[in-house]
Design brief:
The protein has 15 helices and eight strands. It is an alpha/beta fold. The chain has an eight-stranded mixed beta sheet, with helices on both faces. The longest helix has about 70 residues.
Amino acid sequence: MRGTAMPAPQGSSIPNAPDIYYEAFEAKSQGEPSARGAEELLREHQRLQALLDAVEQELARQREVHAALCQKLEQKNRHLREKIADLQREITKLQQESNAVRVALEEQSDHLTFGWQEVQLQAPAKLKCVAIIPAHNEDHTIAPCIESLAQQTYPLEKIIVVNDGSTDWTELVVNHLRQKYPQVECINKKPDGSLRAGAINYALKRLSESDCDLVLIADADAVFAPTVVEEAVKQFERDTDEEIGGICSAVELVGQGLLHRLQKLEYGGFNADRVATWRNIMIIHGLCGVYRLKALRQVRGYTVGHLIEDYDLTVRLKKAGWKTIFNPRMHAKTHSVPTLHALIRQRLRWYRGGVQVLLDHGINRFTALDAFNHIHFLLLLGVIGLIVGFWMQTSGGRWTPHLWWHPIPLAVFLIGWIGGLVQLKWVKGLDWKDVLLRLVLVPELLYYTLLSGVRVCAYFLEFVSAKRRW
């Protein structure tokens, strides 16, 4: 009926207000046109048409995107199928080659062994090291020495102990250790007066270059840090030009008492000297030296009859063109000389042995530093003698302490004292008692005065050609 609007269905978006459609219908049924309803219908039609066009455009665009994606997927699938086919062909080819190799290896098993040997020969060769320990009546020290060498981080091929006519239990101790360490060998040598040099040469003659590349020469009373051989091998491996003939370690003394501490401080000075000349050290000491076997072969081993055969060997290596260096990362320990009598005897041998090497090899670029030390000592001794003589003449023998406060001797004293403090850095096993001993200074002055007297005595014995004793 007119004026009454039909309610909109539930869930519909058509409003419940009087609808223009009903007005238009009633107007048409009554023959009365409605301008307002026609305009609204036209606008709604246009809006719906525009919406329909937009939907059709979006559908067309989506169809294009879908077609493009389908095309790309088809291309990728085709590419993957081609790759799979290629891989299948490669797998088939590899299977055929593998079968052919397997058949060939089965038919030529001898050639397989030879081929692997060729591959191994092309790998970098591992340097082999053998230790030689000359021993004469060393039953109380030889066991710790062998134990420390057998427990190296870089294993030794052999540990050869040369029993040089021992009259104690040295051979028994070594044979007992052989049961624990199979690399230990004991060689018995009859005493013939060749001493340490002869014992080492006796072992060297039994070695060939196939047995080892390096030889560690050790004293029987030495104990080695676990990395001594490893550090030496590293040094030789870095020497690609094979210029290094020998390397020596730093030395630490063990013992007790004042005499031990004085020697300990002295050995710290020796280590400091080696650091200062580490690429060209004067002596590869006998406590722990590692040599190239070919270098020892070239100079024909040790010279029998020298009081300090290690110094003579070092000079001959230098003359042959080999370098002798110091490695501070190599550490070895030994016992200090326990008594004053044994110390004097040791130093007499050292000083006379040094003079012997200078007399045998002359003064050259390899012995110049040692020759300078001897000349410097003699000149200093002469100057001190002149000063004392002058004092005796001018003072009538009376003590004149003001001479010691003269700027020149005072400066020399201070320089030497400060240098001694700096050298404490290279004293192995340093403690506060060692520092105090160096600060006090008096015990060291007496110690070096004694050694200077021993040195003068050694010069005199060489001058009169007295018999040389080990």
